[in-house]
Amino acid sequence: MSAFENRQCKLIARPSGMVKRSDFEFVTAPAGEPGPGEVLVRVLYVSLDPAMRGWMNAGRSYIAPVGIGQVMRAGGIGRVAASNDPSLAVGDIVVGMTGVQDYAVSKAKDMLKVDPRLAPLPRFLGALGMPGLTAYFGLLDIGQPKEGETVVISGAAGAVGAVAGQIAKIKNCRVVGIAGGPDKCRYVTTELGFDAAIDYKHEDVRVALMRHCPKGIDVYFDNVGGETLDIALSLLAARARVIICGAISQYNHPEAIQGPRNYLSLLINHARMEGFVVFHYAARYPEGMQALAGWMLGGKLKAREHVVEGLETFPDTLQMLFRGENFGKLVIKVADE
Ligand code: NAP
Asked: How many A from CA of 76 to the centre of ligand 1?
């Protein structure tokens, strides 16, 4: 029996609308023992991602739903506490799907060793992790921005959007962000170097986009869906590319989500709209990681994390994403480093 006590957050009901505390239960059990080829990871931070809401729903998606009674699925970063595989040693810092719990047993091959001297650990769950890779592949592979083009990013102050906008600046595009509130808008322009920001909570998005994108939108990186997607579609330039990265405005709708009405703009403008899941790019993660780390070390890529303390805050902390209360990549600190 393991010497470690493992607090776990389990999904016990499929949420309707926004998650509730009663959709989860916290239990304590002995941590598992790593079998051959496995490691035991002491989880230090877990990642809170909008996609988690979709993972709680029954039905077909790009990944199986979290089962009722199972530990809530989550990305995380932690320290190897015991190893039964030569590729990882006790003390190594690793990133992978740890779940919302104190200790995770995982195949060693499913954990990525990272260098903790490169950046603060939560950053490996943000700009130097899955959200950064999402921005990298979504923008560059699907968006294919060219110098001088106008790129519009929704969710611009968030984990994915902030990186996508900065990469577009690195590619010498004109970048317009859409975010909620003056603080986030100021952040993307003054700190991150976007050319303009639109506060969708206080401005008319259509009017502001027409002002900031007089020649139309060449690339729209969509993190929010809903009304904003419809407005962006109506303002596309010829041969525009629309990247469907996410639709956070729709994830808590108990009924069917609102789809785009203005899709014929694709026809009129000979434009393209394409969705993706970052996992499709797994074989190219090393390329993306190298580029992101290089830009960060070169001072061209800035990042911000929003750290909340305590595993037991998970249900409430997750709601922050859907209320726009996070400012930067949202993580929960599970244990001291
Ligand atoms: P995030 O932007 O760090 O946090 C979520 C933000 O979404 C909130 O802070 C809030 O910012 C905004 N938001 C919440 N409700 C909204 C609403 N009703 N309308 C407009 N904005 C709203 O989250 P993230 O991790 O970077 O994820 C951003 C998007 O990327 C999500 O849609 C996510 O599902 C998607 N994603 C996709 C992939 C993929 O593989 N395709 C991978 C990772 C993430 P404001 O304060 O500005 O409203």
From this structure: 18
